[in-house]
Amino acid sequence: MKLSGVGASEGVAVGPAFVPRTDRPEPQRTGIVEDEVGAELERFGDAVRVVAARISETAEGLRGSGNEDEAGIFDFHAEMAEDPELASAVEERVRNLESPEAAVLAAGEEYAVEFEAMEDEYLSARADDVRDVARQISAELMGRADSGFEALQEPSIVLAKSLAPSDTARIPKGLALAFVTAEGSRTSHVSIMARSMGIPAVVGVGDALSGALDAETVAVDGTEGSAITDPDPETVARYGELSQALAEERAALDRYRHAEARTADGRRIEVAANLGSASEAGGALEWGAEGVGLFRTEFLFMERDDLPTEDEQYDAYSTVARVFGGKPVIIRTLDVGGDKSLPGVDQIHEDNPFLGWRGIRMSLDTPDLFKPQLRALLRAAAHGNVKVMFPMVVEAGELRKANEMLAEARRELEEEGTGVGEIESGVMIETPAAAVCAAELAAEAAFFSIGTNDLVQYTLAADRGNERLRKLQGADHPAVLALIRQTCSAAQEANIPVGVCGEAAGDPQLIPILLDLGVTELSMAAPSIPKAKKVVSEWKRT
Amino acid sequence: MAQRETTVGPEAGIHGRPAARILKAAKSFSSRIVLVKGDREVNAKSIIKITGFARKGEKVIVRAEGEDEEQAVETLAEVIAADEY
Predict the structure, then answer these.
(1) Which of A383, A437, A488, A501 is catalytic?
(2) How many CB pairs under 8 A join A and B?
(3) What's the whole-number mean pLDDT along residues A330-334?
(4) What's the confidence (pLDDT) of residue A83?
(5) Cα–Cα distance, A14 to A233 (Å, whole number)
(6) How does pLDDT run across A106-165, given as a tens digit for each residue?
(7) Taking 90 as the threshold, does the pLDDT of residue A542 lie above it?
(8) Distance CA A523, CA A428 (A)
(9) What three-state secondary structure class fits A439?
(10) What's the confidence (pLDDT) of residue A493?
(11) What is the extent of the structural domain holding B18?
């Protein structure tokens, strides 16, 4: 049987299936007698300390591996375990002769219901956190480790409806080969965990999972987002070889992962990550990202009925800025066109959206859309090394106007007394026009970043979605290379850095060519980073 | 008893990191400290109670009773009003 879902963490794995026990242990003993009250309260106190310490240990482990956001979830759980209000609610129940293991579940449930009633989506989601923690304390009191993973003895593929933070954190190291869950998306906890553990994950396979729970063996492809239950021997062998090869390659590249990228002749090259959402930041650091070369902001605007507020944008941008500390984070302003609709924006049907009203063209025409984004960026810049990049620029005038609006947004914020940070603004070089006018643009820009995907399709007049034009989709076409060279020369002349943030930046065949042309930064999908650093370290000018 | 009114500063209101900061500050004092909004009153040392207690811009009264009540009220009011994480 084949399950299809979302490929949430790359890689392949094959192994025995493991389904964690989901029947949560229910307290057998619900009442106690008067004489036991003192001793039971003491037992409750001890259980709280054990559980809180265990959760804090998990938080520290995550923090140590750079997963600050995930660590924060566990800090929160530890605080909840030790919460004085929870303790006094339990105490009252125990004094009324409830057993502490039943009392903590009941008290936790009361708070969970309160959270669920809150309108804010983030807050109502905290209900599961309270339940999770109450269950852990209850299980501790019953003398059972409530992880559901006690029976996991050999490296296995974990199949579950969903996996909570306390679940994934308590899987013994090395015993999970991959995760397959019925619920979840790329940004779910389980996906983030899988990426940080470096194991494949397929999430959101839906009800089909229930038919797969009695499988003995599962083959998982976390890149494609599929899983095969009880695969035939050839499939097992193929997945086994693939995962072995990937593991060997990964191990060989591990020493490059967190090394500073420098060419063999000592030139410093920044190897950065492209991000599609704020939640990917922690994982990118894990892969060794030395910054963010392209943070796409479209995710904030998609799949919703209204536009994101300035504050929402600020939250996302400042989160990434903070996660990356002082490392540069280049955030690209909104780049959507007629192919995607935006709530509240008067778009007309376009026959050719890639040659249409998009990127900086739309932004400059719709200050109501653009201004809040610029304000959010300026505010986020107070929390890290944020840079702003404008897409689809074809002439210096557009860049000047965008920079003027940025300055205006800054003045407004300063007058309001809102904190803003220093922010450099640069240009995405993705149209032939921008490359040809690079010298003029360099006078107004603090940096360039070459978007090779679009530059190729605009230069070669070849739609990148068109399968028949595959031959015309390489960044190594002489015309494209000539434009990259021209861009690099202009950047050198003006003494500004020039990066590449298209697929070419992570391509081991193309990296030497790009370095040769004078590129100083490469930004790519995070898993490509270790390999790219290796290629950089072996290159020198001939 | 000491008390002081303050306005919630963080964009997200009292939850996540701001809530953790308020909790940490509250726990550093021996006084009993409560946050009051309208007719609701919660223990400032309870993460479960303060999470989601108030949104940005809402007025909250910090009330403390104990040896270090003055300092507790002053510190908590500042932490709640701070608009950065």
Answers:
(1) A501
(2) 51
(3) 97
(4) 95
(5) 11
(6) 999 999 999 888 877 778 778 888 988 998 899 889 886 666 787 888 999 999 998 876
(7) no
(8) 13
(9) helix
(10) 96
(11) 2-81
Contacts of A419 in chain B (CB under 8 A): 83-84
- Asked if A274 and A296 count as a contact pair (C-beta separation under 8 A), the reply is yes
- Over residues A307-317, mean pLDDT: 92
Question: Are residues A428 and A390 in contact, defined by beta-carbon separation less than 8 angstroms?
Answer: yes
- To 10 degrees, the CA torsion angle through A514, A515, A520, A523? 50
Q: What is residue A66's predicted lDDT score, i.e. its pLDDT?
A: 63
User: Which of B15, B22, B46, B47 is best to mutate for the A interface (most A CBs within 10 A)?
Assistant: B47
ipTM of the complex: 0.89
Q: Which helix (H) or strand (E) holds A12?
A: strand A12-18
**B85 pLDDT exceeds 60?**
no
Please report, to the nearest 10 degrees, the dihedral formed by the alpha carbons of residues A44, A45, A47, A48 taken in order: 120
| Strand B32-37, strand A498-500: pairing | unpaired
CATH, residue B47: 3.30.1340.10
Average pLDDT over residues A489-518: 94
Listed in sequence order, the residues at least 6 apart from A514 whose beta carbon sits closer than 8 Å to its beta carbon are: A484, A500, A504, A505, A522
Q: Tell me the chain A residues in contact with residue B12 when contact means C-beta distances shorter than 8 Å.
A: 122, 315
pLDDT at B40 over 60: yes
How does A36-75 read in b/e, with b if 16+ C-beta sit within 10 Å? Answer: ebeebbebbeebbeebbebbbebbeebeeebbbbbbbbbb
All domains in chain A, ordered by first residue: 2-22+148-251 (3.50.30.10), 34-141 (1.10.274.10), 258-538 (3.20.20.60)
Split into its structural domains, chain B has a count of 1
